[in-house]
Fold this protein.
Amino acid sequence: MSIIIDNETKLVVSGLTGREGSFHGLRNKAYGTQLVAGVTPGKGGQDVEGTPIFNSIAESVEQAGANTSMIFVPAKFAADSINEAIDSGVDTVIAITEGIPVMDMLSTYWKAREKGVRLIGPNCPGVLSPGKANVGIIPAQFFDQGRIGVVSKSGTLTYQIGNELKQAGEGNSTIVGIGGDPIIGSDFIDILTLFDSDPETDLIVMVGEIGGDAEERAADFIAAEISKPVVAYIAGFTAPPGKQMGHAGAIISGSSGTAKAKQEALEAKGVRVGESPTEAAQIAVETLRSL
Amino acid sequence: MDLLEYQGKELFARHGLPVPKGVHASTADAAVDASETLGYPVAVKAQVLIGGRGKAGGIKIAKDSTEAHEYAGDIIGMDIIGPHGEGPFKVHELWVEAGSEIESEFYASVILDRSAKKLMVMLSRMGGMDVEAIAASDPEALVKQHVDPLAGLGKEEAREIVDWAQIPDAVAWQVADVLVQLVEVAQAEDATLIEVNPLIVNADGEVILLDAKVTIDGNSLFRHPELEELPESADQDAQEKMAKERGLTYVSLDGNIGILGNGAGLCMSTLDVVAQAGGRPANFLDAGGGSKAEAIIDALEVITSNPEVTAILFNIFGGITRCDEVARGIIEATNKIGLELPLVVRLDGTNSEEGLALLAEAGLDNLHHEATMLGAAKKVVELAGN
């Protein structure tokens, strides 16, 4: 099983003819992902190392059977591309692009919900189901196949934790980077729900950071709805209020959105929170082995 | 990107919202000239990016030129501390504004509600006090209403909010118009926060926006060139300014351990583990994905320009970033800037073996390699001293 992407994923990459898009799209293909198409308006009929290019995502759905779209286009045009993907007939849209204006994402978010299309990101590293498919920029070599699901707002922090799990001899069902923007298509709650019903996932690691209240809402949701054990890590205890810490969404506003508040909310609902990425990985391994 | 009050008011004025006439000034003499043009009384207002200016003595009403000169002189150079202990914010600029006779004060705001994924309008008849204080003293007096992301806020709907907040009938439609326009401004200008406190009714029964707190989404500046060109606050931290010019994501903190990580999450986490190990981080610096040697040199120059820094920690987990590139950057930068401060390096991930081999070959005396993030944090705390 795994979640969101697997052997059945047929990927179309918007921006495949660009430098970043081709580098990562072809890397995903080399991993074993079924890369069926690229999209660049006006370049339909060309190909990138054997992968056909179409003028629109809808054409790639009709002619190449694409069911998952990856968006790798510059921030100025990315919301339009995501909207195009939502209308194209694919089930899943994974938006890697960083820097999309949040006002654009407000309408795009609701459009995706209305059409029932799963949107991951933007400003995320993508999704990796080890041994099956990789869509995005996650370096697959740091993860093994296994029974731990990971959902995270941060890319490199996920690599850190995944690698510690690997060194401890454990692996992952799927790693989902949900993104560090204030408005993202899928939140912790959405991904926790998918992992909870995935037979290949036994435990979930949730990696949060300062800003917003997605972690607090996830804490309530875990207590009410999630049957599998969840281990968490939160970054940003030393972040000062009012400063954006790299990610557009990582900002403490007044007294809300602090790491401490998130940790307390999770612990109050019985979720163990690691003090460091290393400790979170250790708790996850211990918990998994005691199941 | 936070706008100063006067910048926010200029934005409101461009959209036809009623704001008092005002003039920007940065000296006491200029403030007097501005006051003479506007006519007395005038409000002399400190322009700093923090609330609670009135209580801190940063807003004074001057009745004549003597007072205008005196108050302006007092306020310029003043250090203002925020209501939650933020700052100090040194005052470099003033906004001199025609005085308004205040009959009543309301509170109005439009914010991006991240949880609901919608804009939210807030309105209260209890203006002039902190919104958190309104919510604490009388939660019913603070009306909140989400805006339909596709339809926007209609005039009738705005009027319902106004009635719900028990705004007097005489000004109800004026306030409703202001709410409709504030939502339009938020959408048109990519503002994630607009707070007007107070929104006043003057002696002539006119509704006026007497304050402006506006935050613009930094990701939207490509379509707002006029906002991008606004003058930087003179108070900006030297390292933050330098980092911005070099396109680095940097936040100044008040410790002595310089930090460089790749990726926002890992970098935040690095600050946390250094603090847990008993150290005090001097900064957050995300060298970003795919960090090249030049970016590392730029980053080290910014970090070492802070005289407080006594040791530096590099925490790199290479995904897209290649550790050999980072190592080359460290070696080049060390030689270029004659770096003598202790440097603790943790390199893991893509090409880490090549990177570590390069560092070993370079034989830098000040460089300490640690295999783990926690080990590196402990080591840099030990080397940094207090």
Summary: Chain A touches chain B through 62 residues (CB under 8 Å).
